[in-house]
């Protein structure tokens, strides 16, 4: 007696269709799972055995073999329990075989009493299954708490179940399965950001730089003495970023679903992520890792912001690891079990003090650091990383009079509306070249999309000679100037745009 049912595994952010074969043969009673299962999959035996019995079915007193195909793919996790149990019930004739069973894809973890527990990656599975060429007629059966998230994909039928007996009764024609919970409209509304730029007093230069950064998706380094508001400014960036498009929303939600970070009350993430991992985080935590690689912070920040507060405190290995995602917008993590490529397209924001004690350059306070200490502190950021930062902006210590000022600054919502219209202009301009924002432009696009006036060209030339700017600063300046011009709705890059962009290369000049 053999039964075959479909299931799905998750690799990276993709769902991989699996076939689960359950064979019941004569012989001494045994229960084996083959097809490269890891220890967590092998434990399914005990869960399935108990769940089947506790739901009032009989567990065969024979030799049971379960094969997870394709057999060359390493499997981990507990989400195959439901498919194994359904296969077993079909092979023993306790539920009828037929079209409904053949077109079902089953995922879910079982508890010993037969309840079906939520799993990670339901949205990724639903999206991948809906992209299969022969997806017509497929129905995805999954845990009830995951059904709302999977039902976001309209090209595939989704049914939730809360227990094995409920599912078995459905196949026996003794009841219906509940419809996926409707999406709570409140969970769809974007929370009004609690943090607002109007709370930041003074720091007009830094605010302007962050507006430009948000408008063109540029990477930023904020540097200045302790307590000047660097962390405060960075935390407010999400409040001025444009709201994600529906495709971006699905991408963000898919990643968080795979990482198990999706709240069942909030099945759709309508806000851009803001990730600020602590500097003690491991390379695997930031870049991605694990036996079968899991997404790291760079991937969780996809379509949002990755913020490294106190940048020089991070391990060198971690900072070096950022090079690939900053360049390619994806990250490839290789482990013995698998190589996985994750998306990692984020805006990078770093903050740092000018020296270890933080007082260097402050006219009021004395710096206690030796030149060697300062050099060592700054050299952690040298080369490749600083190379990928478009905007370097000083956040100077704030004066007492400025703090006393009661007039609120400009609200985030107003800044965001300018950012939105600037992004729209970029999307229109780059619709044929697959570039999402000015920061993603390549040098080969400059001639067509970044025309300079004669004055602007002359100023750029002079800046290079007089300020001793590096060649690598050139591309950054053009891209930032393009965004500044876009904020003014100017087609040409003018001298004033170049002048402002040059200002944001202050660390290059010192180095
Ligand atoms: N421009 C400002 N307007 C209003 N409050 C401010 C401003 N700058 C700093 N503060 C106040 O000072 C506190 C410390 O600021 P913040 O943590 O952002 O400083 P920082 O530059 O990150 O310092 P550090 O280098 O020590 O991390 C803030 O929580 C806020 O209350
Ligand atoms: Mg800080």
What's the structural blueprint in terms of helices and strands?
Layout: E1 2-11, E2 14-25, E3 30-34, H1 39-42, H2 44-54, E4 63-69, H3 81-91, H4 99-102, E5 104-106, E6 109-110, E7 116-117, H5 122-130, E8 139-143, H6 144-150, E9 157-161, H7 164-171, H8 185-188, H9 204-216, E10 220-223, H10 230-235, H11 246-258, E11 274-275, H12 283-287, E12 288-289, E13 294-295, H13 297-300, E14 305-308, H14 316-321, H15 323-328, E15 330-334, E16 339-343, E17 347-352, H16 371-379, H17 384-387, E18 391-394, H18 400-404, H19 412-429, H20 446-449, H21 454-467, H22 471-487, H23 495-503, H24 506-510
Parallel strand pairs: 3-4, 5-8, 8-9, 10-17, 10-18, 11-14, 14-17
Antiparallel strand pairs: 1-2, 2-4, 6-7, 12-13, 15-16
The structure holds adenosine-5'-triphosphate (ATP) and magnesium ion.
Adenosine-5'-triphosphate binds at residues 200-203, 226-232, 353, 398.
CATH class of the largest domain, named Alpha Beta
- For the residues shown, what is the average pLDDT? 89
What's the CATH topology name of the largest domain?
Rossmann fold
- Report the span from N to C terminus: 74 Å
Number of strands: 18
* Class per helix and strand makeup: alpha/beta
Shape assignment? elongated
Largest sheet: 5 strands, parallel
Number of domains: 3
Q: What is the CATH homology-level superfamily of the largest domain?
A: P-loop containing nucleotide triphosphate hydrolases
Low-confidence spans: none
Rounded to an integer, what's the Rg over CA atoms?
A: 28 Å
Question: Count of DSSP helices?
Answer: 24
């Amino acid at each position: 007696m053999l039964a075959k049912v479909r299931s799905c595994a998750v690799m990276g952010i993709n769902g991989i269709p699996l076939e689960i074969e359950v064979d019941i043969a004569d012989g001494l009673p045994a229960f084996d799972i083959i097809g490269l299962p890891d220890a967590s999959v092998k434990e399914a035996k005990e869960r399935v055995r108990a769940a089947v019995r506790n739901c009032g079915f009989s567990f065969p007193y024979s030799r049971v073999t379960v094969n997870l195909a394709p057999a060359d793919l390493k499997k981990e996790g507990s989400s195959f329990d439901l498919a194994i149990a359904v296969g077993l019930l079909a092979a023993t004739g306790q539920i009828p075989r037929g079209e409904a069973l053949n077109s079902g894809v089953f995922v879910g973890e079982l508890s010993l009493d037969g309840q079906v527990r939520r799993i990670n990656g339901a949205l990724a599975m639903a999206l991948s299954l809906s992209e299969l060429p022969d997806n017509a007629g497929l129905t995805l059966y999954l845990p009830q708490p995951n059904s709302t998230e999977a039902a976001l994909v309209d090209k595939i039928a989704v049914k939730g179940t809360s227990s094995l007996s409920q599912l078995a009764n459905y196949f026996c024609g003794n009841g219906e399965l509940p419809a996926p919970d409707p999406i709570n409209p409140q969970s769809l509304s974007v929370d009004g950001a609690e943090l607002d730029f109007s709370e930041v007093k003074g720091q007009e230069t830094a605010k302007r730089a962050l507006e430009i950064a948000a408008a063109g998706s540029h990477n930023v380094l904020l540097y200045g003495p302790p307590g000047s508001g660097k962390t405060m400014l960075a935390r407010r960036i999400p409040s001025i970023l444009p709201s994600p498009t529906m495709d971006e929303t699905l991408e963000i939600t898919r990643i968080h679903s795979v990482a198990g970070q999706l709240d069942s009350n909030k099945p759709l993430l309508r806000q851009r992520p803001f990730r600020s991992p602590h500097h003690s985080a491991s390379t695997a935590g930031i870049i991605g890792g694990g036996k079968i690689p899991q997404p790291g912070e760079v991937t969780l920040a996809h379509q949002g912001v990755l913020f490294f507060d106190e940048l020089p405190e991070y391990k060198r290995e971690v900072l070096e690891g950022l090079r690939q995602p900053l360049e390619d917008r994806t990250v490839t993590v290789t482990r013995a079990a698998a190589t996985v490529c994750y998306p990692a397209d984020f805006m990078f924001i770093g903050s740092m003090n000018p020296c270890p004690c933080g007082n260097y350059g402050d006219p009021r306070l004395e710096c206690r650091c030796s030149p060697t200490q300062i050099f060592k502190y700054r050299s952690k950021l040298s080369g490749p990383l600083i190379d990928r930062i478009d905007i370097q902006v000083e956040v100077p210590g704030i004066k007492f009079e400025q703090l006393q000022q009661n007039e609120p600054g400009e609200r985030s919502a107003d800044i965001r509306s300018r950012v939105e219209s600037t992004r729209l202009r970029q999307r229109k301009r780059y619709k044929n070249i697959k570039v999402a924002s000015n920061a993603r432009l390549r040098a080969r696009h400059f001639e067509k999309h970044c025309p300079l006036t004669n004055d602007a060209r002359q100023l750029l030339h002079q800046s290079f000679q007089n300020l001793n700017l590096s060649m690598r600063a050139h591309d950054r300046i053009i891209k930032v100037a393009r965004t500044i011009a876009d904020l003014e709705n100017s087609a040409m890059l003018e001298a004033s745009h170049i002048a402002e962009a040059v200002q944001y290369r202050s660390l290059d000049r010192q180095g």
